[in-house]
Amino acid sequence: MTKHARKSTRLQAIDRPTTATVQIPLPVLGAFASIERSYFDLCILAGQQVLDAMMEQDREALCGPRWKRDPKRRAGRAGTTPSEVTLGGRRLRMTRPRVRSQAGEELELPSFAFASRRDPLDAHAMNAVACGTSTRKYARSLDTLPAEVTARSTSKSAVSRRYVALTTQLTTWLTTPLGDRHFPVVLIDGIILGDHTVLIALGIDIEGKKQILGLREGHTEHSRVVKALLRDLVARGLDPDRARLFVIDGAQALTSALRTVFGPLAAIQRCQFHKQRNILGHLPEHLHANVTSVLRDSWAAGDAALAQRQLKRLATSLEPNHPGAAASVREGLDDTLTLQRLGIHGVLYTKLRTTNAIENFNSAIATYSRNVKRWRNGAMVVRWVSGAIVEAERKFRRVHGWRDITTLVSALGDLEATQEAATERVA
Q1: Could you give the CA distance from residue 65 to residue 72 in angstroms, rounded to a whole number?
Q2: pLDDT, one tens digit for every residue, the chain (427 residues)
Q3: 150 within domain boundaries
Q4: pTM
Q5: Which of 252, 300, 359, 409 matches a 20 to 30 Å C-alpha distance to 369?
Q6: Same domain for 182 and 136?
Q7: Which of 364, 359, 357 is nearest to 130 (CA)?
Q8: Is residue 312 part of a domain?
Q9: Structural domain harbouring 202
Q10: How many domains, in total, are found in the chain?
């Protein structure tokens, strides 16, 4: 390349632009530079201006251009009126343009109807409670508004009223039919809130998916309260003529009620952790390790008959010095081996041999309602538990080992056939 050609190429490279041109509106730069107005304030004020422009556009679509005659126009401008829109968990006051039809009826502006909906306000209140924000601190949890913007619906009483109304609607699920979905496994446990006890039934379907089936509020886990819960489940679609596995903590009231309502078709699995805790409570601490080892080995055995013999030997060895512990081992012994008799092993056995699945849910209820200082009545308890259920069900996952539920369903089918045959012999 000649010297002249190289010089020409360098000149072209110098003349060629290397960066794109960016234009920044100066008024926006001035707003950012102001120390008296934050970025959030700027967004609020800009949002108000956008909404004003949208409402004016809607009004022009209905009334036509301002100051122009139009014989085909459908409505006319009717001044303005104070109104409110929902933004960021509160109601903001603003001025809304009005439009009236030729017949004198006020017409709705689509943009205002969208901005004034209370659904986002309700959702914000529910999320705040779920995150542990108390109604007293709700207003403090929101971003500070510009001084010229007036807000409402952030006081303790306003948030409380909104939450009560929402959770009252949530309790409608208590009367909703369960449908044709089959729940071969049902876990039942209670949680104490103030002076109230809430019994909760958690179902697991054939695909391992969880669902809260029902609840019943009372003052204790009395047999009448349990029967009321079970009969409500039957009335809503839980078939009493199908065998199913019930996992419980071992309360006598639960066992008695299950036998009464479902009869021999109720395969009861007693929580092994609760049973272990009861047995160790009758023993001195230096025996805990040995007895725990025997219990775990027995419950880990694949053969129910072998596990039963081991547990009976344990009871016999404890009888002379610790008769209370021996009686605890014998009490409900068969119910701790139900899963082994049904042929369930592996991961599914580990998940269903205790009430951990529903106790974890009860712990979530306690966390959800931790800001409640006084439970006024049973209706309040039911509302809060219903709110916790809606929140918790978003996080429900399939039970580990759910693919083995088909084995459980088959074993329960054999139980149904056995009971049918026994009934025919009696008849």
Answers
A1: 12
A2: 555 555 555 545 444 544 445 444 444 555 454 544 566 777 777 788 888 889 988 898 888 888 777 777 778 888 999 999 888 788 888 899 999 988 888 999 999 988 888 878 788 888 888 888 888 888 888 877 777 788 888 888 888 888 888 888 778 888 889 988 999 999 999 999 999 999 999 999 999 999 999 999 987 767 889 999 999 999 999 999 999 999 999 888 899 999 999 999 999 999 999 999 999 999 999 999 999 999 999 999 889 999 999 999 999 999 999 999 999 999 999 999 999 999 999 999 999 999 999 999 999 999 999 999 899 999 999 999 999 998 888 889 999 999 999 999 999 999 999 988 888 887 6
A3: no
A4: 0.78
A5: 252
A6: no
A7: 364
A8: yes
A9: 178-426
A10: 3
The token duo for 116 is 């004034």
Q: Which two tokens stand for residue 417?
A: 């056939």
